[in-house]
């Protein structure tokens, strides 16, 4: 099995690897490297703007911006200094219009960048009580940001008003990964406490918990 799904009765079921997974129509027969972006140090986060053809790579203290519409470009077109030099960017998300970038990492503050200006600038900062953010997710309507915090909390942010709306509490160690359902009603989070949890975003409560301690 390479993944799991939740059955109708709420149980985790393995998804078997299909026999024709590598043979079916439309499956690429090969992959080749077409470009390398030399960030220069460890990269912990990457996001791509399909509207502007820019790639954002997050590393130590900063996010570097690359123009992939210019083949062979060896230098970033900009550098966004987000954190102290020794702190790593852990996640970055760009809104679909390519005008707003949200950055989180080893700091209690998320930075929201305005990319529409000639020189990108921070237009807002969102501060929580946790010392770090490990992962970010954006709601399908692009109105809400979810941040996975090192204290185990999931913080819900209103991007329009730039305010903290709610916190989901349940993980007993850092919340490290996150995904949201296509209809925006459920949130899935994984944590360093070896659990995966499902949250109901309409009622603001935990629906399910799956323990992977024995895995």
Adjacency order of strands in the biggest sheet: 3-4-5-6
Euclidean distance between termini CA atoms:
13 Å
CATH topology of the largest domain: Thrombin, subunit H
**Mean pLDDT metric:** 91
Percent of residues in helices = under 10%
- Write down the CATH class of the largest domain: Mainly Beta
| SSE run | EEEEEEEEEEEEEEEEEE
Q: Any low-confidence stretches, pLDDT <50, length ≥5?
A: none
Q: What is the CATH architecture descriptor of the largest domain? A: Beta Barrel
Strand content: over 45%
Number of helices: 0
Derived from helix and strand composition plus strand pairing, the structural class reads mainly beta
Number of strands: 18
* Overall 3D shape: globular
Main β sheet profile: 4 strands, antiparallel
Give the assembly state of these chains.
single chain
Q: What is the total domain count? A: 2
The whole-angstrom Rg is 19 Å
What does this structure look like?
A hairpin with a 5-residue loop joins strand 11 (133-138) and strand 12 (144-149). 0% of the residues lie in helices and 47% in strands. The strands form five sheets. It has a four-stranded antiparallel sheet with strand order 3-4-5-6, with no helix packed on it. It has a four-stranded antiparallel sheet with strand order 7-8-9-10, with no helix packed on it. It is mainly β. The protein has no helices and 18 strands. It folds into two domains: 35-116; 128-215, Thrombin, subunit H (Beta Barrel). It starts with a strand and ends with a strand. The protein is globular, with a radius of gyration of 19 Å. The model has no long low-confidence stretch (mean pLDDT 91).
